[in-house]
Design goal:
By secondary structure, the protein is of the alpha+beta class. It has 6 helices and 13 strands. A hairpin with a 7-residue loop joins strand 6 and strand 7.
């Protein structure tokens, strides 16, 4: 973080330098937009075809075919979840939190998309409904559904506390992917990636720039719903932090299960087709 007392004096034009207006790194006016009306028309006729209950302090994997919808719902009480997405037929293509953040901002909501890694860089899923969209940004700069936190993990926990804890979201997702795919834990772990923090309320402290969390506003019945743009394998961890009001990476918080439901429409959305990988030719300027 930045020093409270800098070691170097400010130059004479410091105020002028600070006053320069920022520009957006990635203007998105040319970014293709989802046809939410078509998605919602398809969703209106969809039938539930699968459901998975994710136990507290654990994770489960689930499959969603291209053209299906899936919903993550809060059940027994306030609870946050850590979501990973992979291409169902190629684990190397997975959710790219950093690029999603660069395109859509720090916290996601309706019409935002979860983008995949290079070299494919395409929408994996589109958020089609968010019962917490009313929350916006609070007085502390907090908002829900962030793509700024990585996931709680046993390595950082050991670094900061000195002890082991085996039910961090990173470990939960590792176990779940190993069970689902038959990979060993050692082979599954490198496929675990930075998450979408579903229902988590987070931001950056304005004085230090540090990542903060606060009690999630989620309540039983709240949900976040997605449309699968490609065939997906999902992994969801019910975070050991519960509503993340005080702690994580321990058994001290009250935790609840999360429900994942998959819905199949009678027909795909009008005009929709599964997105192709990036058109970039990967020549990288080489002769």
């Amino acid at each position: 973080m930045k020093p409270i007392v800098p070691e170097h004096p400010a130059p004479a034009d410091a105020s002028a330098r600070r006053a320069i207006r920022p520009v957006l790194c990635y203007p998105v006016e040319t970014l293709p937009q989802p046809d939410l009306a078509a998605y919602r028309t398809a969703r209106a006729g969809a039938q539930k075809t699968a459901e998975i209950l994710v136990p507290p302090r654990d994770a489960r994997c689930f499959h969603v075919g291209a053209g299906q919808f899936f919903r993550i719902t809060c059940t027994g009480g306030p609870q946050v979840g850590d979501l990973n997405l992979w291409h169902a037929h190629d684990l190397a293509e997975h959710f790219y939190s950093g690029k999603t953040r660069a395109l859509h901002g720090t916290h996601l909501s309706t019409s935002d998309r979860m983008w995949s890694t290079f070299p494919t860089l395409r929408p994996m899923a589109t958020i089609t409904d968010d019962s917490l969209d009313w929350y916006g940004f609070d007085a502390f700069g907090g908002a829900v559904h962030d793509v700024i936190g990585t996931r709680c993990d046993p390595y950082t926990n050991a670094l900061l506390s000195g002890g082991p804890y085996h039910h961090c979201c990173h470990s939960n997702l590792t176990r779940a992917l190993a069970r689902e795919t038959g990979l060993s834990l050692a082979a599954a772990e490198p496929h675990i990636h930075d998450v979408l923090n579903v229902f988590m309320c987070t931001g950056f402290a304005r004085d230090t720039g540090q990542y903060f969390m606060k009690a999630s506003p989620v309540r039983p019945g709240d949900y976040l719903e997605f449309f699968a743009e490609i065939d997906l394998l999902g992994g969801l961890s019910s975070c050991p932090g519960g509503d993340c009001s005080a702690a994580h990476s321990s058994d001290s918080a009250t935790c609840q299960p999360l429900l994942v439901e998959v819905f199949t429409p009678p027909a795909p959305p009008a005009g929709w087709s599964s997105p192709a990988p990036s058109r970039y030719d990967r020549s990288h300027g080489a002769a």
